[in-house]
Amino acid sequence: MKFTTGKARLSYAHIFKTYSNEGNAPKYSCSLLFPKTDKKNIERLNKLLQGMLADPDNRQKWGTSNAAALKMPLRDGDVEKADDPNYKGMLFLNASANPDYPPKVVLLDRTPVADPSEVYSGCWVQAVLDFYAYNSHGNKGIGVGLRGIRKLKDDKPFTKSEVSDSDFSDDFIDDDDMFD
């Protein structure tokens, strides 16, 4: 089911090149973080998910109507990513696209992104997603396909740590032995 989000913070952005995690097949992927205070966006997402849970075709595919038995895409950052300050006060979901179907990535004015560094983990985006029911290899739930990203505005990039000039020290460099 096609769904266009409200504002979301982009994280783990692999939207221009495929990425393979832990030996899985390479895909385009990202995490989308939604402020818990954005009630309108959260309500729309929950309404979509509740509709999918109630759909008879999905229930047949899963072989159950018990939501607790399914993997749900919308998760609580305060619980599942408690050690990451970027996820504090956020709900999040992961979305991906197969290599044959790269996501469309555009700027606010809907023009294609010329420089991939303009859309980065930490900026605010709107996403076009496909929600779908799955039952594969013993896993059942609702998955999220990534169709498009629209950059809305800049913000502080998410990084593990920043490097400053003072982090480099000459104390460990011996000029005489450096390039012998």
Automatic annotation (TrEMBL):
Chain positions covered by the region annotation Disordered: 157-180
UniProt-listed SUPFAM superfamilies: Nucleic acid-binding proteins (SSF50249)
Domain of life, source organism: Bacteria
Classification via InterPro entries: Enc34_ssDNA-bd, NA-bd_OB-fold
Biased composition (Acidic residues): 164-180
Gene3D superfamilies referenced in this protein's UniProt entry, alphabetically: Nucleic acid-binding proteins (2.40.50.140)
Name the UniProt record assigns to this protein: DUF2815 family protein
Source organism per UniProt: Dialister succinatiphilus YIT 11850
